[in-house]
């Protein structure tokens, strides 16, 4: 399998030339556009890799799935669904448009920024520091790596420039969806997005979701089954931005991407996938990563449909 993956990476890598690394978060501009790597973590414990799979990258929007799982565990689906909806938007991830036209004015889902900011504020804790500690400890549990942390310069770079996200927060605050201090939330959210890991660790988290929340190595139920199911459903309907429909057609697995070029995939009862390829298409998905996933899905019959 490793040999096959290496070949597929070589075949998909040239697609990166058609994409561009994210530049609206200044620190992400430093990424190497031609990077492409993948890890597959089989639920039987075997893992396979190709490319520079130990290179670390920030999770960005992939972290939204982790925060969502934690908040669903903290407060239960009812409280979460009272503040965020269940529908894809068809708009870009940081759009404010639907917030103004929808009544009531609540984010359509937790995978767009408005919904993710709402969810992050809901993490239980008496202070921002406590919320952060709980989030990073939960992430460590999922990766089985206690040293997992965030990239401080990427977090700072986003914090310094996140005017659009601040606008979303103030809009949501006006409508009572967000209630606390916006700067504190931005600090927590930018740290969350800057959580850093490699493809191998990301694939391991994907494998937990693939097993309905059960850690394939320890056998522990890290996330309750019904909550893992909610997260995977959102990954299918809105995980790949407003390209989720095309992705379901071509690849057909629950997945979440981030503007750093990361993609986490979960193939039910089979494996977790971690991909890193920072050159993005115009919707914000890793362009070579998508090609690679399409090849893998065709070759290994990953589609759930
Ligand atoms: N930190 C990024 C933002 O909020 C995450 C976006 C993404 O990866 O889609 O803009």
Rounded to an integer in angstroms, the radius of gyration calculated over CA atoms is: 18 Å
Helix-and-strand structural type: alpha+beta
CATH class of the largest domain: Alpha Beta
Q: In one word, what is the shape?
A: globular
Number of domains: 2
Total strands: 8
Order of helices and strands: HEEEHHHHHEHHHEHHHEEEH
Low-confidence stretches: none
Bound molecules: glutamic acid
Q: Order of strands in the sheet with the most strands? A: 2-1-8-7-6
What percent strand?
Answer: 5-15%
Q: Between the first and last Cα atoms, what is the distance in angstroms? A: 23 Å
Q: According to CATH, what is the topology of the largest domain?
A: Beta-lactamase
- Please identify, by name, the CATH architecture of the largest domain: 3-Layer(aba) Sandwich
- Mean pLDDT across all amino acids: 95
**What's the main sheet like?**
5 strands, antiparallel
Q: Roughly what percent helix? A: 40-55%
User: CATH superfamily name of the largest domain?
Assistant: DD-peptidase/beta-lactamase superfamily
If helices are DSSP runs of H or I spanning 4 or more residues, what is the number of helices?
Answer: 13
Topology (SSEs and partners):
Blueprint: H1 2-12, E1 37-42, E2 47-50, E3 57-58, H2 63-75, H3 77-83, H4 97-101, H5 113-121, H6 128-143, E4 149-150, H7 152-161, H8 163-174, H9 182-193, E5 195-197, H10 199-210, H11 225-238, H12 244-250, E6 255-257, E7 262-267, E8 271-276, H13 287-300
Antiparallel strand pairs: 1-2, 1-8, 3-5, 4-5, 6-7, 7-8
Bound molecules: glutamic acid.
């Amino acid at each position: 399998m490793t040999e096959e993956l290496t070949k597929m990476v070589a075949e998909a890598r040239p697609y990166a030339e058609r994409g561009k690394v994210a530049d609206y978060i200044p620190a992400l501009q430093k990424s190497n556009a031609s990077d492409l790597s993948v890890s597959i973590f089989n639920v039987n414990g075997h893992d396979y890799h190709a490319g520079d799979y130990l290179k670390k990258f920030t999770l960005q929007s992939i972290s939204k799935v982790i925060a969502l799982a934690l908040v669903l565990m903290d407060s239960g689906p009812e409280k979460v669904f009272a503040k965020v909806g269940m529908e894809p938007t068809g708009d870009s991830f940081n759009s404010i448009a639907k917030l103004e036209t929808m009544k009531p004015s609540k984010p359509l889902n937790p995978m767009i920024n408005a919904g993710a900011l709402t969810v992050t504020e809901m993490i239980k804790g008496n202070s921002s520091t406590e919320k952060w500690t709980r989030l990073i400890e939960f992430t460590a549990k999922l990766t089985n790596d206690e040293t997992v942390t965030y990239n401080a310069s990427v977090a700072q770079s986003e914090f310094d420039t996140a005017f659009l996200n601040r606008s979303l927060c103030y809009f949501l605050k006006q409508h009572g969806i967000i209630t606390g201090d916006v700067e504190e939330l931005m600090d927590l959210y930018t740290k969350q997005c800057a959580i850093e890991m490699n493809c191998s660790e990301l694939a391991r988290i994907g494998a937990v979701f693939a097993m309905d929340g059960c850690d394939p190595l320890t056998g522990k139920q890290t996330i309750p089954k019904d909550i893992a199911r909610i997260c995977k459903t959102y990954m299918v309907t809105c995980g790949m931005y407003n390209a989720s429909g095309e992705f379901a057609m071509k690849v057909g697995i629950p997945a979440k991407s981030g503007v750093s070029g990361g993609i986490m995939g979960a193939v039910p009862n089979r494996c977790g996938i971690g991909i890193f390829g920072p050159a993005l298409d115009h919707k914000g998905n890793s362009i070579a990563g998508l090609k690679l996933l399409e090849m893998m899905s065709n070759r290994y019959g990953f589609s759930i449909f």
